[in-house]
Design brief:
alpha/beta; 620 residues; 16% strand; six-stranded parallel beta sheet; globular
Length: 620
């Protein structure tokens, strides 16, 4: 086996940081001290940042007044990483909760951004969080807004009126804060808004002048944040739920399609109970885990076969209904329905409450016979109860459901066995097959409490690994922007740091090259994350696009790698990791070496250190 391993050992940080004492502190002298007390009152555990002058006072207050504890600074080398870390952290917190009520008693992560330039750098990551409907609390520094207080040049080119204009089309709310009362209102309002369904990012820009201002003699008290109640969740109209229940119970070929339930507390288990009650197949759209992939009723992977016979389809928190009900010809860019024309459709989501005009992420308008606006965490439980009540008067359905369950179970088991056999068949292929990589990962994590934080190896993660709990798989870049994976995965690993949960980032090569300095943050803050490179040495999605265009135009296919391959030179990601202080293994090219090397990475992470295993893979 030919590979290089580093023996890098990070020296301990030795910062002289005083601990925050709520009895003696909480009596700040400056506006920035007061803001830190507000953040503490809301239970903000961490704040990620790349340092900047427009929040230097707030930076000072976090460290020297607040003791760098709740919030604690997580230093990043790029704002896109800072936002992605908070995105991943907050989703990881939500994925472990059992009830919607638990959302409001957790500790979350916020972001600090330096005026216009920091916000511009961060905008892609904020867009990712927006598309993902992820709670994200972003603070920015700006100004001075008072012209007489501005330094020549730098304060003028970095002061926008107002900063929020840059991202207003993809945040739930933004505001400019210039006084203490505005800080109280805006910070608490932002916390409430970001965590209220439908969730999303919020942004507050804080004037430099307020941060450095001495507090007035009039005592400003931190309000009792518990008195600011979160809006009660709505489960939807009861009459509509009864109609859905009737259609679901009476359907000959019902199908449940769910998306992004992993961090909707209680929804994951509720969907399992609903599917089992009516023996309905479930298709998991896959942006996060919505249903156990090893459950006999999970027919993800057989969408076309299942949907073409459906007579009733229930869409549950589906982001783009048209996409999941159609198949697309990649060459012609044409989509056609795969469902019968007479299939009944019901739709449960809060999608209509967060529709904007700037980016049309909602997709093509999809007809639905019943459209219910409600939070799925509540609606699924109510629907389950409605179905139980309806079935009480129709006991004859029991035999129908049993027969259907057995047929679906057989199909499910056959699919998974075929996938396992195919992965085994690819064990000796070079470059390493993504199917074989998934199979090796399953063998390695079989007895671990693990989380897959990013990427699914072109579907092989779902086909091979056993994903039975909502937090097992939290990875997908709904915003489809590169640079997402490393920061997002670090946030998840930070949230689970100190537990026995093993966090694994399956990291595409092109994506990491956007934000490689995330490796430095992993090393500096001792974030135990195992990164396994999905290193196909190309932007292969673009390779496929070039192939499609050439094929349609009857042009040579052998030129599709020009402008898409990441080689000459190839990137040595293990060496890159070592340069940032992360343990680097590989590159691994022989499939026989794969398990041993990944186990080395796992053992490193279990000892509290970040590690990266570079695996040279096939494109898909």
């Amino acid at each position: 086996m030919n590979m290089k391993v580093n023996i890098y050992a990070h020296k301990s940080c030795n910062f002289n940081v005083k601990m925050y004492d709520p009895e003696t502190d909480g009596k700040g002298k400056y506006g920035s001290d007061f803001i830190v007390d507000l953040l503490k009152s809301l239970g903000i555990a961490y704040v990620s940042l790349n340092p900047g002058s427009t929040f230097r006072e707030l930076h000072d207050s976090i460290v020297n007044y607040g003791g760098n504890r709740e919030p604690e600074i997580i230093l990043c080398c790029h704002e896109e990483i800072a936002v992605s870390i908070a995105h991943g952290y907050n989703k990881a917190v939500l994925a472990t909760l059992e009830t919607p009520e638990d959302i409001h008693s957790q500790k979350y992560m916020a972001v600090l951004l330096h005026d216009t330039v920091g916000l511009l750098h961060a905008s892609m990551a904020i867009f990712n969080a927006w598309i993902d409907r992820a709670p994200l609390f972003i603070l920015g520094g700006t100004g001075p807004l008072a012209v007489g207080e501005r330094r020549p040049w730098i304060d003028w080119i970095h002061t926008a009126v107002v900063d929020g204009d840059i991202i207003r089309n993809f945040v739930k709310w933004d505001n400019l804060v210039v006084d203490l009362q505005g800080a109280i209102d805006s910070i608490i309002r932002s916390h409430l808004l970001s965590l209220s369904e439908p969730m999303g990012p919020v942004f507050i820009s804080i004037d430099v002048s307020l941060q450095k201002k001495e507090l007035p003699e009039k005592e400003y008290r931190i309000p009792d944040v518990k008195r600011y109640a979160f809006p009660a969740l709505r489960g939807g109209d009861s009459e509509a739920l009864m109609k859905i229940a009737k259609l679901l119970v009476e359907a000959q070929n019902p199908v449940l399609i769910a998306e992004n339930l992993a961090w909707k507390p209680g929804s994951f288990q509720a969907l399992v109970e609903l599917a089992e009650l009516v023996s309905s197949p479930v298709i998991d759209v896959g942006s996060t885990l919505s249903f156990p992939n090893i459950h006999p009723l999970n027919l993800t992977g057989a969408e076309k076969e299942i949907l073409q016979h459906a007579d009733f389809i229930l869409l549950i928190n589906v982001f783009d209904p048209f996409r999941v009900l159609t198949a697309t010809d990649r060459d012609l860019r044409k989509s056609d329905y795969i469902i019968p024309d007479d299939a009944k459709i019901a739709d449960i989501s809060l999608r209509y409450h967060i529709t904007r005009g700037w980016i049309q992420e909602y997709g093509r308008l999809q007809p639905a016979d019943i459209s219910l606006i409600g939070d799925v965490s509540i609606a699924l439980r109510s629907l389950l109860k409605s179905c139980e009540n309806y079935l009480g008067n129709h006991p004859e359905q029991k035999e129908v459901f049993e027969n259907r369950f057995n047929e679906l179970k057989s199909k499910h088991e056959s699919m998974r066995e075929e996938w396992r056999i195919e992965a085994q068949r690819k064990r000796n292929e070079k470059p390493i097959s993504t199917a074989w990589l998934a199979l090796v990962l399953q063998e390695v994590v079989e007895n671990e409490d693990y989380v897959l934080t990013n990427s699914d190896l072109n579907g092989w993660v779902h086909r091979i690994l056993k994903l039975e709990r909502p937090f097992r798989y939290l990875g997908s870049r709904l915003g489809a922007g590169l640079g997402y994976g490393m920061g997002y995965s670090l946030g998840i690993a930070l949230a689970y740091r100190g537990t026995n949960r093993l966090c694994i980032n399956i990291q595409p090569d092109g994506d990491l090259l956007y934000t490689p300095s995330g490796l430095w943050t992993a090393s500096h803050h001792r974030i135990p994350l195992l990164t396994v490179m999905f290193n196909n040495q190309s932007y292969y999605n673009s390779v496929e696009h070039q192939k499609s265009v050439a094929r349609v135009r009857n042009r040579p296919l052998n030129n599709m790698f020009i402008g898409t391959k990441i080689d000459d030179p190839s990137v040595d990601f293990a060496e890159l990791a070592r340069s940032f202080g992360v343990y680097g293994f590989g590159p691994v090219e022989d499939p026989e070496d794969l398990k041993e090397v990944i186990l080395s990475g796992v053992n490193t992470v279990k000892n509290g250190k970040p590690a990266l295993v570079d695996v040279i893979t096939q494109p898909r």
